Amino acid sequence: MTFQELKTAEHEYIAQTYARYDLGIDHGIGATCYGLDGRKYIDFTSGIGVNSLGYCDSGWVDAVASQLHKLQHASNFIYTQPCAQAAKLLCERGGMKKVFFANSGAEANEGAIKCARKYSRDKYGPGRHVIVSLVNSFHGRTLATLSATGQASFHANFDPFPPGFDHAPAGDLPGTLEKLTGDVCAVMLEMVQGEGGIIPLSAEYVQSVAEYCAENDILVIVDEIQSGIGRVGALFAYQLYGLSPDIATAAKGLGGGLPVGAVLFGEKTQSVLGKGDHGTTFGGNPVACAGVNYVLSVLDDAALDAVVKKGEYIRSRLLKMPHIVEVGGLGLMIGATLSPGVKARDVVDAGVTEGVITLTAKERFRLLPPLTITMEEIEEGLERVNEALKAV
Ligand SMILES: *Cc1c(COP(=O)(O)O)cnc(C)c1O
Questions:
Q1: Are residues 138 and 279 in the same domain?
Q2: What mean pLDDT comes out for the span 147-166?
Q3: pLDDT for 267
Q4: 81-94 and 286-298 helices cross at what angle (nearest 10)?
Q5: Dihedral in degrees, nearest 10, Cα atoms 108, 111, 112, 115
Q6: Among 23, 131, 170, 276, which is least packed, fewest CB within 10 Å?
Q7: 223-276: pLDDT as tens digits
Q8: CATH code at 195?
Q9: Which atom, in ligand 1's list, is nearest to the CA of 137?
C-alpha cells in the first residue's frame, strides 16, 4: 500500500477526529521510524509519551511476546502474576500502597475521582464531592474527566457535563485556597501541565496546596499520565516535588506502547474501593503488565539520570535555534515558546518534511522523546528541527 492509498482508505473509513500529520509510518527501532516509502524519521514524540523505550526495544518485545505465548488474558476473577508484580513495583518505587489497573489515562482518572468521592462519603456522608482541578489542565476525554479538564476548548458541544467539578487558578495560592470550600473532597493536579503547554507548577505552590489539603482532609490526586514513568527524570514528578499524593494516576508511558493505565492509592485511600465498587474487563491484562514490568526494570537510577542529562542537552541546543524564545519543562518533557507569528503546528509540519516528528502543546512546541533515545538520534533529530525552524 502506498501512503496515498492509505490516506484515501483512512479518510473513507475512519472517523475524522484527528488532525493527522501528512505522514504514515510502517515500522521503527529506537527513536527512529520509517515511512511507507522507506523514508527515515527521528521521532521526538514517543507516540505522545507512550513508547517510553522507543520503537520495538528488543528486551521489551521479548518480555511482551513471551507473556503472549503463555497467557493473553484472564478475567479479573482469577489471579495472574504480571499485574501483581507490576503493582508491587509501582507501590514500592512510587511510595504508594495499592494499585487499580485501567486501560487508559482517562479511565485511570475516572477511578481516582470515584475513589476520592467514596473516601469522603464513607467518612463525612454525601455532599462533600467536589473535585477541584486547575485552569489549563488536561485530564482526559470521558465526560467526567472533561469536566475536570480546565480548558474551555475541550468543552464545546458536549454539555451537560457531570457536576461536582470546579477549577482553581494554577500557581495562584490564595485563588486556589478560596476554591477549597467545605464541599471539596479532592484537588487534582498535574505537576507539569502537559497538553496545557508543558508548564511545571512551582514547588512552593504544590507544597502549600498539599499542606492545606492535609490539614482539611482534602485528598491530593496527582495526574502523572504524561509526567510519570521516568519522563521527568524521576519515576513520578511528585517525587521531585517532595509530595506524597493520596492518589496518583499513570498511563501513557507505563506499558512502553501497550494500552494500560493505573490508579495508585496511598495510605488514606488504599482500602476505599472494595469489592464491586470498581472494575474493568481488560484491567491488569497480563500482556500489558508484562510491558509495564519491563519498562520499570529499565528505568533504574542511571536511566533516570540520563533522562535529566538528555533533557538539559536538548534544551540548551533548542535555545540556540531560530524562532525559539524560551525552553522549559522537566527531563524529557520539553516545551518551547516560539517567536510571535510563528505557529507551532507549522514547525511540526515543516519537521515532517525534514524527517523529524514533533508535537504542539497549545501554542507551544513540544518534544517527548523516548527515554532511551541515543545521543546520535538526538543530534540527527535536532539538526532536522533546526532545518524545520529555518523553513517556517
Ligand atoms: C493524555 C493525558 C490524559 C488522557 O489519557 P488517555 O489515555 O488519552 O485517556 C490525562 N491526563 C493527562 C495529564 C494526559 O497527558
A1: yes
A2: 94
A3: 98
A4: 40
A5: -160
A6: 276
A7: 999 999 999 999 999 999 999 999 999 999 999 999 999 999 999 999 999 999
A8: 3.40.640.10
A9: 13
Residue 359 has what pLDDT? 98
Nearest residue to 263 via CA among 282, 293, 244, 283: 283
CB 4 within 8 Å of CB 320:
no
Q: How far is the CA of 247 from the centre of ligand 1 (A)?
A: 16
Question: Total structural domains in the chain?
Answer: 2
Cβ-based neighbours of 45, under 8 Å, separated by 6 or more: 357, 358, 359, 367, 368, 369
For 91-102, the pLDDT digits (tens) are: 999 999 999 999
Q: 320-350, pLDDT tens digit by residue? A: 999 999 999 999 999 999 999 999 999 999 9
Cα separation, 102 vs 368, in Å, equals: 23
Residues in contact with ligand 1 by the CB-under-6-Å rule are: 104-106, 109, 138-140, 190, 194-195, 223, 225-226, 251-252
Domain enclosing residue 27, as ranges: 3-52+301-391
